[in-house]
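Data availability (excerpt). The following record was deposited with the supplementary files.
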Amino acid sequence: MAARIDHLVTSGTFSLDGGTWDVDNNVWLVGDDTEAIVVDAAHDADAIAAALGGRRLVAIVSTHAHNDHIDAAPALAARTGAPILLHGDDLPLWKQTHPERAPDGELTDGQVIAVAGTELTVLHTPGHAPGAVCLYAPGLGTVFTGDTLFQGGPGATGRSFSDFPTIVGSIRDRLLTLPPETVVRTGHGDSTTIGAEAPHLDEWIARGH
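Predicted structure:
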């Protein structure tokens, strides 16, 4: 059975630099009827476990360590036995949310994660966070971008650990080089395509956003 993508929206809060905001997060499950990975265990371990059903969870992959993307990861790991994977550059952010629980493994640029006969390649795309990554699945024609690229532009860079020139460089060099038909599945909001976003790079740079 070919791998498929399941989508769940969970709700909670995002906190950083002394502020807290209500957010809805996209949780992506990639797999078949037997096994899956979770991209960003946000807010609600019970809801994510219900979406998994009886499937074996291969890994919990964190696109970055802002609390709204990792707050349910330890509970989901405890429930399923799956390892939590995070890029090492985001450990300082991770420790703000889970000081007592380290990730189980590190994501590295170029690493390949296999599930249900499909492969996802880790692309290190810093800017929104130092250890931000995207997951490119050419066999599924998609890239999971976390908060690096949204419909309409780059992720936010106005808070600690973020940098606008860095995120623009990541998007230009690592994402806009993908096939234009590649579907961009984001950490919040609607999906888009590489082809729809690529023409606007100069606009983003001009407005510094």
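Summary of structural features: The first strand starts at residue 4 and ends at 16.
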